[in-house]
Amino acid sequence: MRLAYQYRLRPTKQQIATFENWLELCRRQYNYRLAERFNWWEQNRCNVDRCSIISCGIAPLKDKPSYYSQKRDLTNTKALFSDYKEIPSHTLQDVIARVEKTFDRWLKGDGKGFKSGRPRFKGKGRYHSLAFPDPIKPEHLTGKFIQLPKIGKVKMILHRPIPDGFKIKTATITCKADNWYISLSLEDVTVPSTKVDVIPALDNTLGIDMGLKSFLVTSDKQEVEIPRHYRKSEKKLKRLQRQLSRRKKGSKRRQKSIKRVAKSHLKVANQRKDFHYKTALCLLKQSQVIAHENLNIKGLAKSMLAKSVNDAGWGQFLQILNIKAASAGCLIVAVNPNGTSQECSDCGATVPKTLADRWHSCQCGASYDRDHNAARNIKHRAVGHPVLSKAREMSNPLGGVT
Fold first, then answer.
1. What are the distances in angstroms from CA 385 to CA 26, 153, 202, 273, 345?
2. Cα distances (angstroms) measured from residue 389 to each of 189, 334, 376, 392
3. What are phi and psi of 207, to 5 degrees?
4. 52, 91, 156, 290: which could join 7 in a potential S-S bond, CB 3.0 to 4.6 Å?
């Protein structure tokens, strides 16, 4: 079983200077290794319909830079630039691993076949984390201090203890707008991975309908108000952005303004994440199976409601809900969202509505709030409730083709 705990660091001024220097060196190494791969790709690709074998010769293909070839070349980097000798070897190798991952996702895609955009070079101040892939021994964690390679003991705020039996596999130092943080990846091989054997049924399933009027409405008619963290902080952010635009580029006052803006955005992100965690835990305490719509969140984030959709953070909430459900032994079911607001949750008949219609009234006598009716339909689809088949039988009692 793997867990990730994040703690705030209290490094000294000398340690902060070391971290900043290492981040800059890793950023340069990242850009250099990415440029090597781009040069290989540009020099070896050739459009067949635009290159004549008779009129021009074809140069021999160059070897593709790989993770292992670039890792072996780190010895030459350290020989030419002595500053890289101060960085642990595994930290530099992690930089090449990141280049390998982002480049392959662009050309080949991930395990599901989804490709990412063209990798970009990291500008100054755009590289924020240092990884220590080597396992940290228990004796390196003493009290409120953690010992890191070539750094020594760094003070951290141990706000929650590390569970017994878990070993620290990796550590990652991250520079955020407000402070330095360390993320510890913990593993315990004695704890088996959680296997969910829950079967969705009417008595153990809870349907949720996410929206912008309310963050979500459950099939039990519970409503969670949408906090609108970004909307509430928008006025302050506009003022800070105006101050930033007036500062002279390269000045110290501009750097201070950049930090103020970054801290404000970080606060909004932390508030949203805290709300998502609390909401997910509250839902998992109520039911063993949570059903939700399989929404195209990326598409909705490009519509006219983009700001409100991004402020709600449905994607992050569903990701947190799945992670917490896996550790709690619960099941998350995504259903087809087509027609959940238009169909009646009692008889299955279609009742057309516009976005302005917030109440569902059907000829069968059903009368629900629009979102509550959608949540009931989501629950029925997750458990395979035969509402639609009954409605078809009622409309065609002879059993013929309709």
1. 55, 59, 8, 34, 10
2. 47, 21, 16, 5
3. -95, 140
4. 156
What letter represents residue 402's amino acid?
Answer: T
Share of the chain above pLDDT 70, in %: 90
| 14, 217, 305, 341 from 352: Cα distances, Å | 66, 20, 22, 9
The pTM for the full model equals: 0.84
Average pLDDT over residues 3-20: 94
Contacts of 108 (CB under 8 A, 6+ apart): 115
d(CA 275, CA 51): 57
**Confidence tier at 360 by pLDDT (50, 70, 90):** confident
Residues 72, 75, 81: CA angle, nearest 5 degrees: 140
Residue 22 pLDDT > 60: yes
Reply yes or no on whether the pLDDT at 48 is more than 70. Answer: no
Residue with tokens 């390998």: 100
